Amino acid sequence: MLLISIEHVLFYRQGRFEENILISLAKQGFTLSPQSKLFVETTNYTARIVGKTFTKLVDEGVVDKEEMGYYVSDVLLKLMLFSKLLEISSMCPFNLRYR
Question: What's the CATH number where 26 sits?
């Protein structure tokens, strides 16, 4: 059941906006402002797209907000995002994992 919901969030949604934004959020751990210049640069999208996507992810319960900022609420989803991030970095011509 949980695996189905994780796949739903990552693969069967409109576009790859959510996946890339979730990977950036998991990589940072949390962000105080999703539309900040620093966070937006990690996603390669506009601040508007990031803001709308964050609103959608918060409404669906995928991302939560506390005093420290926004973060991926599901630990298993966060681990899956990290594994996707490692797959991406292992495909690079130079190894980014050891930087």
Answer: 1.10.10.10
Comparing CA positions, the residue from 15, 11, 9 lying closest to residue 59 is 9
Within a domain: 96:
no
Give residue-wise pLDDT tens across range 19-59: 889 888 988 888 999 999 999 999 889 999 999 999 999 99
In the numeric block, the tokens 């890339």 are attached to 20
The secondary structure of 12-73 as a DSSP string is: SSSSSHHHHHHHHHHHHS-BS-TTSHHHHHHHTS-HHHHHHHHHHHHHTTSEEEETTEEEE-
The structure's pTM equals: 0.69
